[in-house]
Amino acid sequence: MKEIIEGFLNFQKNAFPERVTLFKSLASQQSPKALFISCSDSRLVPELVTQREPGDLFVIRNAGNIVPSYGPEPGGVSASVEYAVAALKVNDIVICGHSDCGAMTAVATCQCLDHMPAVSSWLRYADSARVVNEARQHPDPSAKVAAMVRENVIAQLANIQTHPSVRLALEEGRVTLHGWIYDIESGRIDAFDSRSSAFVSLADNPDVNAVSPHARHVA
Questions:
Q1: By three-state DSSP, how is residue 44 classified?
Q2: Could you give the CA distance from residue 46 to residue 189 in angstroms, rounded to a whole number?
Q3: Dihedral, 213, 66, 207, 194 alpha carbons, nearest 10
Q4: In the predicted model, is pLDDT for residue 218 greater than 50?
Q5: Is the backbone of residue 114 left (phi > 0), alpha (psi -120 to 50) or beta?
Q6: Are 35 and 92 in contact (CB under 8 A)?
Q7: Spatial CA neighbour of 99 closest among 42, 167, 183, 5
Q8: Which of 20, 38, 86, 109 would suit a FRET pair with 75, their CA atoms being 20 to 30 Å apart?
Q9: How would residue 219 be classed by pLDDT, with cut points 50, 70 and 90?
Q10: Residue 152: pLDDT above 80?
């Protein structure tokens, strides 16, 4: 805790004064351009990976970068998605998984989570990804986990489209969905390409997207 407090003091003394104009502009409003949904894992910091400043990203973080399908009793993730899309009018939504994900490792390897019932219940939202992953052959356990991470991103992209605010934004052509996998060791990001239904290097394919807007034009 001492190091955290020292970090804040350093921010207050050095980093804040350098961005005083920015923080003044953010004091009473925000207009982020993207909603970034990632894992809570301490090794993935959305603002660091994307080199964004405060106010640029509206961030949701949870175990396994999960977006539950919309239901009769929406939770905190649903409320945050709705606010980002309907109120803040974000243009892009990124669902970002990562290598060595503990949540996806637990799902892929069928680890017993009886001692963590809340975690076990939460990870049921990755069941569709687990079923697909289990139906495929994998050369080794690490490959199975890596595949699970990818399948989960694809599953959550499907889940988020059940949210009314997202569906409407897609139909009106004002939001684009992106599915990313961040590799912790190399810093590489692979993005889901809707055209090939495969993950490709984001560095080599900067314009790739998972779901494009599909506005309907009514005569």
A1: coil
A2: 12
A3: -70
A4: no
A5: alpha
A6: yes
A7: 183
A8: 109
A9: very low
A10: yes
